[in-house]
Amino acid sequence: MELSVILYLIGTYILASIPFGYVVGKLFGKDVTKEGSGNIGATNVTRTIGKKAGALVLILDMLKGYFPVYFGKHYMYFDDRILSMIAITAVLGHCFSVFMKFKGGKGVATGLGVLLALSGKTAFIVILLWLGSFLTTGYVSFASIFAAFMSWIIIFYVEDNVFYTFAALFLSFIIVLKHSSNINRLIKGTESRFLHR
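That's the Glycerol-3-phosphate acyltransferase sequence above. Prediction below.
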């Protein structure tokens, strides 16, 4: 592997490791790792600080997945194999941040940013699936798990690209794994709804 690719992957990991949820929380005088679910993602930030802070974290977490893949695709002209590695690295950086002792978020927003850069059509369909399942159930976690699982199937049919499909499959596994506690609560019926009925 070329040195430029290795350096790009390291840079992607460091960028994606920036814990925007934690940083934004601190700006509001709160440690989100000790509030609510303890997660640094947009959902917990929204619950503990507010919608504006949550929206900011959502956008920032998406961008740190989107930009490394987009820049690598359109300016560095990396091939699909390298792009899939960049996509995986970005989500791993978010989920296992070097700045958070290799802990982090659950990868949903960063994963969506990656999808937007790899395949806009796939990202659009995944967003629709997420919204549909969220509005139907009221659970952010269920919607995220369902959308993540479906992403690799959708990108396979939309792009017919083995590298993109593998990246989406691997990332869906990571996202589902990071939601293991949510899955247990969903099964037990103790998961908190974001939308109350």
